[in-house]
C-alpha cells in the first residue's frame, strides 16, 4: 500500500513539474520537454515527400555558413523542420515545415539591410517555444532576440529585445549548455570572438567575455559543434582566405562550464572570466592543416557528435580560382590529424570574397558529405560517401544546374533531419552576399 502511495505522489510531482518551468516572457505555462545533449535523433514518421523529390522550402532567401542553429527538426507536440534565412529585401525570416500535414509557415522577425550574414540563430526553449537571436553584419553592437508566443509556432513572436556589446558584432552561434542556459558566440570588431550566456528563466544575458583575439588583426572565422562527449564543443578556426595573417586550420574545444582547451586537454582560456587568464590567440591552438606559402583556406563544416572529430575545408593557391575540398579527422591511435582530399571545387562563385560553393557533413553520419561545386561550367550538388574517413570516396549526383548562369551552393543539413528533407541548399543567382536571387530548396533522398 505504501509503495502505491509513493508511486502516486511521484506521478503527481512529475505532472506538476511538467506544467511549470516556463522560460522567457509571459505568464502562460506550457508542457516542459526534457533536454537531450546535442540533438535528438527522432525516427521519421510517414513521409510527405517522395524519394528524389526536389522542392522549394523558402523563396527569395539566402544564408551564410556562420550561424547556429540555422536548420533543425524538433519533435514535441508537432514534428517540424525549421529554417532561418534572410530574404532579398533584408527581412530576417523563419520558415517551418510540418511533417504530418505537409504545410509550410513563414514569419518575418525584423528588417534591416540585405545581407545573408544576418540570419537568426534559433533554439528551442524547455517549453517548446522558439528563441530567435540575431545580429547585423558589423553594423552595430546589438544582440537582438525574440521568443515565440506559443510552442512550436513561428507565426507570432513577442517583442524584440536588445543587449548591447562593446564593439560592432557579426554572427550568432547558439549552443544549449544546460536545462535553461544557452551560450552565444559572436565575432567582435572583426578580429575577436566574444560570448555571453542567456538564461531563459530570467530572460537575461550574462556579461560579455572576449575569449579569442587574432593579435595580427583582420577577420577571423570559427565554427563550433557539439562533440559526442557531453558538455564538449569542438572549435575549428582560420583567417579570412583573402587577407587573414593565419591561413592554418586550427582546433580547440570548450566545455559547458566555459573552459577553453586544445588537443590533449591543455587549458588555454576561460569563457566566463577573461581577466583570470590572458585571452587566447589562434596560435595557442593546434594546427590541423598547416598552410603553405600562398595558400588560401576556407572553413566549411565540423562533424556533429561524430565518432571522430572532423572538419571540412578548402584550399587554393595564389590567384587560382579553383580549390581543393578536404576532409580531416583526428586519429586517436596515432595522435595526429589526417587530411584527405575529396575533390576539386571548380571555379569560385564570387571571386571578390573567394566564395566557393561549399560542402557540409550529414549530421547523422560523419562519413557522408554533401558537396556543391562546378564541374565544367555547371554547378551541381552531390552526395559523397566514405567508409574509411576520406581515404576513398564514392559520389552520386543529386542535381545539376539548368544552365551555366544558375548557381547551386551551401548545402545545409538540418539537425535531426527527417527523411522528407535530407539536405537544403541555395539555388539561383548569387553575385554577392548583399545581392542575390536565390531560393532555398530541399532534396529528399
What this model shows, in words?
This protein is mainly β. The chain has one domain: Neuraminidase, CATH 2.120.10. Helices cover 4% and strands 48% of the residues. It contains 1 helix and 32 strands. Strands 16, 17, 18, 19, 20 and 21 form a 6-stranded antiparallel beta sheet that branches. The longest helix is centred in the N-terminal third of the chain and has 18 residues. The radius of gyration is 21 Å and the shape is globular.
CATH-defined architecture: 6 Propeller
Residues in helix, %: under 10%
Overall form:
globular
CATH class bucket = Mainly Beta
Give the structural class. Answer: mainly beta
Quote the average pLDDT. 93
The poorly predicted ranges are 1-21
| Global Rg | 21 Å
Q: Could you give the count of β-strands?
A: 32
| Percentage of residues in DSSP E strands | over 45%
Can you tell me the CATH topology? Neuraminidase
The number of domains is: 1
Number of helices: 1
Q: Main sheet, how many strands, which sense, barrel?
A: 6 strands, antiparallel
Distance between the termini: 54 Å
Summary?
By secondary structure, this protein is mainly beta. It has one helix and 32 strands.
Key attributes of the depicted protein:
Neuraminidase, 445 residues, mainly beta, six-stranded antiparallel β-sheet, disordered N terminus
Topology at a glance:
Blueprint: H1 2-19, E1 54-58, E2 61-62, E3 71-75, E4 79-87, E5 91-98, E6 104-111, E7 121-124, E8 130-134, E9 142-147, E10 161-164, E11 169-176, E12 181-188, E13 192-199, E14 204-205, E15 209-213, E16 220-226, E17 232-239, E18 249-255, E19 259-262, E20 266-270, E21 286-289, E22 295-302, E23 310-317, E24 322-331, E25 336-347, E26 359-362, E27 365-375, E28 378-385, E29 394-400, E30 407-412, E31 423-432, E32 435-443
Antiparallel strand pairs: 1-32, 2-4, 3-4, 4-5, 5-6, 7-8, 8-9, 9-10, 11-12, 12-13, 13-14, 13-15, 16-17, 17-18, 18-19, 18-21, 19-20, 22-23, 23-24, 24-25, 26-27, 27-28, 28-29, 30-31, 31-32
Amino acid at each position: 500500500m505504501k509503495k502505491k502511495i509513493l508511486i502516486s505522489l511521484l506521478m503527481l510531482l512529475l505532472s506538476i513539474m511538467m506544467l511549470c518551468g516556463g522560460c522567457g516572457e509571459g505568464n502562460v505555462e506550457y508542457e516542459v520537454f526534457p533536454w537531450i545533449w546535442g540533438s535528438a535523433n527522432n525516427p521519421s514518421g510517414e513521409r510527405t515527400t517522395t524519394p528524389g523529390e526536389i522542392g522549394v522550402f523558402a523563396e527569395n532567401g539566402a544564408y551564410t555558413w556562420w550561424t547556429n542553429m540555422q536548420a533543425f527538426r524538433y519533435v514535441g507536440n508537432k514534428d517540424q523542420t525549421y529554417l532561418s534565412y534572410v530574404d532579398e529585401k533584408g527581412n530576417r525570416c523563419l520558415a517551418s515545415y510540418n511533417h504530418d500535414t505537409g504545410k509550410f509557415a513563414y514569419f518575418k522577425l525584423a528588417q534591416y539591410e540585405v545581407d545573408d550574414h544576418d540570419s537568426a540563430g534559433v533554439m528551442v526553449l524547455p517549453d517548446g517555444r522558439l528563441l530567435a537571436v540575431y545580429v547585423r553584419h558589423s553594423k552595430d553592437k546589438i544582440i537582438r532576440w525574440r521568443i515565440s508566443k506559443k510552442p512550436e509556432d513561428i507565426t507570432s513572436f513577442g517583442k524584440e529585445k536588445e543587449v548591447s556589446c562593446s564593439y560592432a558584432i557579426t554572427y550568432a552561434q547558439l549552443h544549449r549548455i544546460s536545462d535553461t542556459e544557452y551560450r552565444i558566440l559572436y565575432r567582435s570588431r572583426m578580429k575577436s570572438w566574444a560570448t555571453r550566456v542567456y538564461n531563459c528563466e530570467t530572460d537575461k544575458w550574462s556579461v560579455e567575455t572576449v575569449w579569442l583575439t587574432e593579435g595580427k588583426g583582420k577577420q577571423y572565422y570559427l565554427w563550433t559543434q557539439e562533440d559526442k562527449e557531453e558538455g564538449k564543443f569542438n572549435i575549428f578556426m582560420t583567417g579570412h582566405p583573402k587577407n587573414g595573417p593565419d591561413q592554418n586550420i586550427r582546433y580547440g574545444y570548450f566545455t559547458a562550464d566555459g573552459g577553453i582547451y586544445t588537443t590533449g586537454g591543455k587549458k588555454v582560456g576561460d569563457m566566463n572570466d577573461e581577466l583570470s587568464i590572458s585571452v587566447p590567440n589562434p596560435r595557442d591552438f593546434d594546427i590541423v592543416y598547416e598552410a603553405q606559402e600562398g595558400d588560401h583556406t576556407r572553413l566549411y563544416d565540423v562533424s556533429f557528435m561524430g565518432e571522430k572529430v572532423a572538419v571540412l575545408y578548402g584550399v587554393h593557391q595564389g590567384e587560382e580560382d579553383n580549390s581543393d575540398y578536404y576532409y580531416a579527422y583526428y586519429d586517436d591511435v596515432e595522435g595526429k590529424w589526417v587530411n584527405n582530399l575529396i575533390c576539386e571545387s571548380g571555379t569560385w562563385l564570387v571571386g571578390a570574397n573567394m566564395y566557393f560553393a561549399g560542402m557540409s557533413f550529414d549530421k547523422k553520419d560523419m562519413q557522408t558529405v554533401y558537396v556543391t561545386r562546378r564541374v565544367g561550367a555547371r554547378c551541381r550538388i552531390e552526395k559523397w560517401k566514405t567508409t574509411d574517413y576520406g581515404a576513398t570516396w564514392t559520389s552520386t549526383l543529386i542535381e545539376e544546374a539548368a544552365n551555366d548562369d544558375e548557381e547551386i551552393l551551401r548545402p545545409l543539413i538540418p539537425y535531426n533531419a527527417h527523411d522528407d528533407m535530407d539536405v537544403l541548399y541555395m539555388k539561383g543567382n548569387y553575385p554577392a552576399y548583399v545581392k542575390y536571387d536565390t531560393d532555398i530548396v530541399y532534396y529528399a533522398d
